[in-house]
Amino acid sequence: MSAHVQFAACLVLLTSLLGSATQAKPPPPDPAAAAMIRELGLREGAVASRDLPGWSATPRVLVLRADAERLAALQRAAPGAAIVAASDDPTALAKQLATATAVFGACDPTLLAAPRLHWFQSYPVGVERCVAVEGLAARGVVLTNGQRTSGPPIAEHAIAMMMSLARGLPQYGRYQQAGEWNREGFGRARELKGRTLLVVGLGGIGTEVAWRGHGLGMRVIATRNSSREGPDYVARVGLPDELLALAAEADVVVNAAPITPATTGIFDARFFAAMKPGGYFINIARGRSVVQDDLVAALRSGQLGGAGLDVTDPEPLPPGHPLWAMENVIITPHIAGDSDREDARLWLLVTENLRRYAAGEPLLNRVDIARGY
């Protein structure tokens, strides 16, 4: 073989290798995802994916509730990954789970039992059913969730409930259905400007609630588990052991705390007694944070002026429960996170997290399994 032929052959081989390297290079972040990360303040984990024991740049990903368009977007984000839509057939699903190293869906013990599972992306924010699975952390499973993607609609729902109670809209709605022009049945509406809003749980959802409350001219105070730090529009951030003292300042309380052993039943008779008489209680987090009999008693006595409940304990709320018949209570069936934009934000997050995982970068919204959020 002549020197010219050898040189040409080497050049072809080098070009091929360079082309393969270029193809293997992970794609850049979607600009829309980058903008969402900034807007919602999404946080990345402290450890790069490539440094996690058991990581692979070519994961086998099982995806629930994904159409062809979403599957294609996931494939573009991680060209080397094997991405499969979850089957509706239990037998076929079991075969898929046997080889999956990553699963995207809602917390389900069957999904979390996948023998080769390394990463579970939960669509919902609440992951109590995930962290309740015994041995999850010991198996080295990495857990991420949809934190903050549903924050805007949930916060708007909380504010809508608060304003509806203050303006008497539940009562006026009943008068409308009865065809009754009643100007006396509710009493005096309340202005919210200058009132104090207590946000319990200043995380992603709580921060969105606080920002909107501040925009209405309210004085916003809050609690958070990790520190006393908060945005400028929150006048004071207390720790969990200061909850009752902060409740004494509150005209409105919004529960945005995750459910953990420490937050189960924290809204009880002592808490409601500590609030300003006639205050409003809004729950858009978890029903088990509330001692429901104590809530009913506080509403009946007038200590609470009203309640807005998107969550209850149990769910669904049983027929005939006293809360159904109370004129100063708004109940919605755990739909606060629903909106025409929430799905788009969630799938931006899921797709960006897969891109990061395949690229070996830190994941967004990593859950501390020991803490439960």
TrEMBL record:
<dbReference type="InterPro" id="IPR006140">
    <property type="entry name" value="D-isomer_DH_NAD-bd"/>
</dbReference>
<dbReference type="Pfam" id="PF02826">
    <property type="entry name" value="2-Hacid_dh_C"/>
</dbReference>
<keyword id="KW-0520">NAD</keyword>
<dbReference type="InterPro" id="IPR036291">
    <property type="entry name" value="NAD(P)-bd_dom_sf"/>
</dbReference>
<dbReference type="GO" id="GO:0016491">
    <property type="term" value="F:oxidoreductase activity"/>
</dbReference>
<protein>
    <recommendedName>
        <fullName>D-isomer specific 2-hydroxyacid dehydrogenase NAD-binding domain-containing protein</fullName>
    </recommendedName>
</protein>
<keyword id="KW-0732">Signal</keyword>
<keyword id="KW-0560">Oxidoreductase</keyword>
<feature type="domain" description="D-isomer specific 2-hydroxyacid dehydrogenase NAD-binding">
    <location>
        <begin position="159"/>
        <end position="336"/>
    </location>
</feature>
<feature type="signal peptide">
    <location>
        <begin position="1"/>
        <end position="24"/>
    </location>
</feature>
<dbReference type="GO" id="GO:0051287">
    <property type="term" value="F:NAD binding"/>
</dbReference>
